[in-house]
Amino acid sequence: MEPLLKVENLRIELTTRTGVAPVIDNLSFELGAGESISFVGESGCGKSMTALGIMGLLPEKVGRIASGSINFNGEELTTATAKRLRDIRGNDISMIFQEPMTSLNPVYTVGEQIAEVIRAHQGLSRKAAWDQAIELLDAVRIPNAKGRVSDYPFQMSGGQRQRVMIAIALACEPKILIADEPTTALDVTVQAQIFDLLNDMKRQTGASIIMITHDMGAVAEMAERMIVMYAGRKAEEGPVEQTIEHPRHPYTRGLISCVPHIMSNISEERHALTEVPGIVPSLSDFGQNRCLFASRCNMVTQKCLEERPTEKPFANGQKAACWYAEEV
Amino acid sequence: MSNETLVSVENLGVRFAVKRGGGWGQASYLYAVDDVSFEIKRGETLAIVGESGSGKTTTALAVARLVEAYTGKVNLDGTDFLALDPEASRLARAKMQFIFQDPYSSLNPRLRAEQIVREPLDSLGTMDETEKKKIVDRLFAEVGLRPEQQRLFPHQFSGGQRQRIGIARALATQPDLIICDEAVSALDVAVQAQILNLLRKLQADLNLTYLFISHDLGVVQHMCDSIAVMYMGRVVEHASRMDLFNNPLHPYTSALLSAVPSVDKARREATKRILIPGDPPDPVNLPAGCRFANRCPVATDICRKEDPALRDVKGGHKVACHLVGNDAVSPL
Amino acid sequence: MTDSPLIPTEEIPEARHPFAEAWEMFRRNHAAMVALVVLLLIILAAIIGPYLYPVDPFDMVWSPFSPPGADGFLLGTDYLGRDLLAALIHGARVSIVIGLAAAVVSVLIGVTVGALAGFYRGWVEELLMRITEFFQVLPTLLFSMVIVALFGASLPMITFAIGIVSWTAVARITRSEFLRIRELEYVTASRASGAKNGKLMFRVILPNALPPIIVQAALMVGSAILFEAGLSFLGLTDPNVVSWGQVIGSNRQYILDASFTVTIPGLAIFVTVLCISLVGDGLNDALNPKLRQR
To answer: Which member of A191, B138, C20, C52 has the lowest number of beta carbons within 10 Å of its beta carbon?
Structure first.
């Protein structure tokens, strides 16, 4: 079966003061219908840029798709017209953002904002759209939806605003929902509620979910497959559980072991956290023909500095872009 | 580690006046920190965890007297820090330093790194220049920065390096207590690990005492010796690290722990998520009973009528819940 | 940390003061750079001009209304036969000095009021901001005319009259910057390390509040020159010194017969104020941290 979304050899370039840098460098991945995948990595690794590229929302004049293809449902998005992309954004692919405080317009009620999206995409009457807005608020579990529908964003808590954002994203029944750090700004109990909500929605509507996050725990809870990004490149891809259990790229291993996780049994003993020294390289270093993680890697050899590693596939579906993937 | 108590906070309270509806009616108060007490032993770490609005940061600021408490005591090494006159408290600040959350706004952009680290020494005003220089040199080495970096300005450092400067500044006056307010939450995970390791190493080397404020239970679990969980300005549970994580008693603590996503498959399968629906009550018009009652899955009548006090249920494990008996069994 | 020889040690960048970077930014703004050069030339002319061209602007040197270029007088003569070039050179001194001095006066008043209001909040802020509003609603030209009329038209009094009506903008900017910066963590950090209020206000917060104040001050020099021209035009000026506005004012009856007597000093004011505005604009871009990031 053809995947719902197929990205091949995607290269996105960003023009900065110091020159043109490939923020996404030869990225390929697939997303099946009803599947959920996660993009993980530190900030500045190109996770959000991938999402913006798929949505056709790259920063104007600064960012552009240089080569590669994004195939959605049999349709090529890299060559689609602006109008067609707008249609797709409204009807087939929706996005929710990190900051629920600023992504809602403060001068309209939440009902008006949801109803407007419904009217634009389904051509319903004012009354019908308003009724559906109430239904959606109810669906995202805002208590007393009928009463809250005429609230303004400032009258709601952060978690409720993120629910409204999800309601807006779901208003046009998208095939793909892209969630860019949807819970980073929220408390952990609220995060748990949002995750539950997203999982329920996925079961009910059959939508695929792309979640962008830096939290391995969130990946483990939310996704079936994960893609680890580093410096604009895919470092590793694989089924979540097996990848977390046995990462094949030193960067993935570092990302997992440098975070103090709550394990099932807390013991008295505590070890120092494994460090990944240094920081993500700056944009001007992107795109070089070598392993960009080499400067932070404890397994580095001369070969890593001379040639960009190719992707090594493993039997269980894991793939890692490391010369020494078998040894990790 | 000695058993000496370094800090004891007694019945600390912070309130903010809020005007509601205008007019000249009586001011209502928002009790951001309400009757909070805890002790920290020298060389240990106490973590305060809680969600936004729980009062954990206000508690930290009140302990350091950066926010005025309307009641309560902060005994540091035997003297009540809050009762000192302004000049004495200014000098006493040397014993209690702060590490801030945001590595971008916590350093003065107009000063060089060395000037930032030296600032607390300048304020103390008891040293000559060469002495200060020597201390700054040592601090830079201690936090893992190179001497050549002393002349740079904050914007020339990465987030992690900036946080190291913030740590060096906090160490300058050889404080007994360091308050870390979400000191790593703004950092990327790899850098976060570097800073956490540094904090633990410094604690071991210099016998530092930390008051560690965080919302990240994973980090807290790694860093602390004991934990106070706050909800709506109150401490609802206070226990040692092992007790709190392995046997949480307050329903809120259980809910909080169960909400943390985990990479550990065994833990994911073992924990049933305890959902707490709804929102916390209005902090200005608090309900009569337990503040958590309206979201608590096991609340009974007494919870809605009487405000539970924090009490010791078993060997130092303190909890504020009517439903926990002296057998220390979770009501869930 | 691993000390593999393959891991390069990070390069230490040059320690550059934030103001050095602002200058870099400023230099890339061509309009502002040209304006700065012109402005420096005008200032240079004001300083050394009287030595290079030692003609007394009050002397009647030739027949009135000689057009520019006639009989060796580059810019011609006015209605009393006084050399306009000499008036322009000597007037530049007065105009620029008054512009700078008035700007200094209003920055001093404005920064003090704004800093106290923004730092202490509460009743101090209420009181100071009510006073500021009082000065804001005064009709500025009338008020300064009253001051000059009452206390005499000496240069210091004119400077003071201009300064006293134009400090309110500085006060408001300073206050809003203080309100913003006092909440930043590095100020709390200074407080936590035991800094006194005076140090917090003037050594920690003020340097960080300076950029918009500098821009405002630069623009104020321009408006002060215009203001002085306005007062001189109305005759409220020290009769013993020449200024550009005064030249315009004294020649205004002859604007139709000998328009150059008015347009030439008018042009001088226009060019100077335009240059100051452009420089102010360039400063604004250079000092604005949001624009500096790429």
So the answer is: C52
Residue B134: pLDDT above 70? yes
Q: Supply the pLDDT for residue C179.
A: 93
The residue with greater pLDDT, A79 or C63, is A79
User: Does pLDDT of A150 surpass 80?
Assistant: yes
Among B314, B309, B315, residue whose Cα is nearest residue B330:
B314
CATH 3.40.50.12780 fits A5-91+210-320, yes or no: no
Q: Regarding predicted confidence, which is higher, B57 or A144?
A: B57
Element (H or E) spanning A243, and its range?
Answer: helix A240-245
Tokens 């900051």 identify what position? A99
pLDDT at position A323? 92
Closest CA to B122 of C169, A134, C99, C195: C195
Q: Under a CB-based contact definition with an 8 Å cutoff, are residues C102 and C162 in contact?
A: yes
What pLDDT is recorded for position C293? 44
User: Looking at chain B, which residue has its C-alpha nearest residue C207?
Assistant: B110
Q: What angle do CA B122, B127, B130 make, to 5 degrees?
A: 100
Chain C residues within an 8 Å CB radius of B165: none
Question: pTM of the prediction?
Answer: 0.84
* Overall average pLDDT of the B42-53 stretch: 92
Q: pLDDT > 70: what percent of chain B?
A: 97
Shortest CA distance to C163 belongs to which of C119, C122, C103?
C103
Cα A101 to chain centroid distance, Å, stands at 19
Interface ipTM = 0.86
pLDDT tens per residue across span C173-205? 999 999 999 888 899 888 888 888 888 998 899
Which regions of chain C are under pLDDT 50? 1-9, 292-294
**Chain B partners within 8 Å of C195 (Cβ):** 119, 123
- pLDDT at position C6, please? 43
Helix (H) or strand (E) holding B239: strand B234-240
Which chains does B contact via 3+ CB–CB distances below 8 A? Answer: A, C
Interface of A with B in 138-177 (CB under 8 A): 143, 157-158, 160
Query: In angstroms, rounded to a whole number, what is the distance separating the alpha carbons of residues B135 and B121?
Result: 9
Backbone angles phi, psi at B45, to 5 degrees: -120, 125
What is the Cα–Cα distance from A191 to A218, expressed in whole angstroms?
9
Any CB–CB contact under 8 A between B98 and chain C? Answer: yes
> How many whole angstroms separate alpha carbon A293 and alpha carbon A300?
9
Candidates 1.10.150.40, 3.30.70.330, 1.10.3720.10, 1.10.860.10; CATH matching C96-292: 1.10.3720.10
**How far apart (Å, rounded) are the C-alpha atoms in residues B271 and A91?**
38
What's the whole-number average pLDDT of chain B?
A: 89
Chain Cα centroid distance, residue A158: 20
C193/B64 CB distance under 8 A: no
Delimit the domains of chain B by residue range.
Answer: 248-332
* Cα–Cα distance measured from residue A275 to residue B3, given in angstroms and rounded to the nearest whole number: 32
pLDDT digits (tens, 9 = 90+) for A255-304: 998 888 887 777 777 888 888 888 888 888 888 899 999 989 988 999 99
Cα(A246)–Cα(B35) distance, integer angstroms = 48
First to last CA, chain C: 33
Give the residues across from A144 on adjacent strands.
none
Give me the residue spans of the domains in chain C.
96-292
Cα→Cα distances C13→B149, B150, B209, B251, Å: 8, 11, 35, 52
Partner-chain contact A275 B193, CB within 8 Å: yes
